[in-house]
Amino acid sequence: MEVKQALVRTEAFVAKHPRALTGTVLGLLSGFAITAFGIAPLAPNAEELPRRVIAEAVQPNDLQAQLAELAEHQIGLSRNDLTRSSDTADSLLKRMGAPDPAAALFLRKDPLAARILQGRAGKMVQVTADASGTVQAMVVRFAAENPIQQATHFTRLSVSRTADKFTSKLETLPLQAQTRLGSGSIRSSLFAATDEARIPDVIASQMADMFSGDIDFHRELRKGDRFSVVYESMTADGEPINWESAGGRVVAAEFVNNGRSYSAVWFQDKATGKGNFYGFDGQSKRRTFLASPMEFSRVTSGFAMRFHPILQTWRRHLGTDYGAPTGTAVRTVGDGSVDFAGWQNGFGNVVFVRHSGDRTTVYAHLSRIDVKRGQRIEQGQRIGAVGATGWATGPHLHFEFRVKGEHQDPRVIARASEAVTLPNYARGQFLQTVASIKTQLSVAQTMDGGVNGAE
User: Fold this and answer.
1) In the 8-state DSSP scheme, what is residue 419?
2) Where do the structural domains in the chain lie, given as residue ranges?
3) CATH code for 77-174?
4) Which pLDDT tens digit goes with each residue over 335-365?
5) In 428-455, which positions are buried (b, 16+ CB within 10 angstroms) versus exposed (e)?
6) What 8-state DSSP symbol labels residue 378?
7) Angle, vertex CA 218, rays to CA 213 and CA 219, nearest 5
8) Bridge partners of 240?
9) Measured on CA atoms in the order 141, 142, 145, 148, is the torsion positive or negative?
10) How far apart are CA 343 and CA 389, in angstroms?
11) Same topology for domains 77-174 and 177-286+424-454, yes or no?
12) Do 141 and 173 touch, CB atoms closer than 8 A?
């Protein structure tokens, strides 16, 4: 009984005088390297009270040695960035916090290192430097220089420093696929939403293509529309890339437009080796004609009356104009053969493609032409690049769709074109694919505009 009363009195004392107790304990500890003490407050019979022993080791000599070593340590930096078209060797290193004149000179003089700033911008650069900004190493990753390998490989350019000597090395290595999930909500446009969710542009473009038969992304998109996507992202040394040549592909997606839900999954027929997007009901998402001849574009002039910028008169516009920078890839919207490829009056560089059913598509004002007359081409194949040749006030693509010589609205034709059907023998395999992908889409739907990578 006396022990219990003593414990009660001890708890009351600690609660009432915490600072006094702390000061007493610290005073006891200050004179010892290793100190043990028992809790024995003002109790009449301390021998009978429970004891708890706390041991604390204080080693001032070791602590001083660690502080001295830390003071001598040179803290460095490692930073990642993308090259810009305006970059010089000096401006690139300065922007990355490593204004090293010797390294900049090497980037200018060494044939391999000079490739960092040659060609297209957007190369992934990683710089490692010491606390003074002296470059120790650089690793640059970009699309494989061999066009045949660009979908499967990347180029790694390494620069290393030993004392005052730099060396460079160029390697071609395989890209790695990584399954990722993403989701987002529409506020202004599809590409703004996918940018916010850190989803690559090439994936956004594929989503627009796969749902183009269901949704007109230029006219029918609504604020508050939602999407979720499972996709394969290609990585270089584990770093996600956004190169047009190797940007990965959509595995499955769901899009809710104006309250109506649309789903699709990529399915590859093992018998034929051909793949296509299908709705979960087995209906193909692929149409005979794509809705747009460009992956990234904005309509600047539709199939309607307009004021002609050169002739300065109101005229019927018999096609669709897509604004885009010079050099942007132009693709054929359907299978066919090249009927004409060359220069033609106001069209400038133009390609005519003949399709089945007496249908023809026209691609005008090109800066370059990548096909020849009589050549067979497949849907989505590159046929040229955006330009401003002929009667054009700026870089854009003029696109026309003709049926038996009569001009038609390309988007109406695309949405009404024939669907590619799923073979009956592949339906069992397809249903298994759908069942496994639904779980991943459910997880993606719970994400709020973010992404999650998993091997």
Assistant:
1) B
2) 2-71, 77-174, 177-286+424-454, 298-416
3) 3.10.450.350
4) 999 999 999 988 999 999 999 989 999 999 9
5) eebeebbeebeebbeebeeeeeebeeee
6) -
7) 90
8) 235
9) positive
10) 9
11) yes
12) no
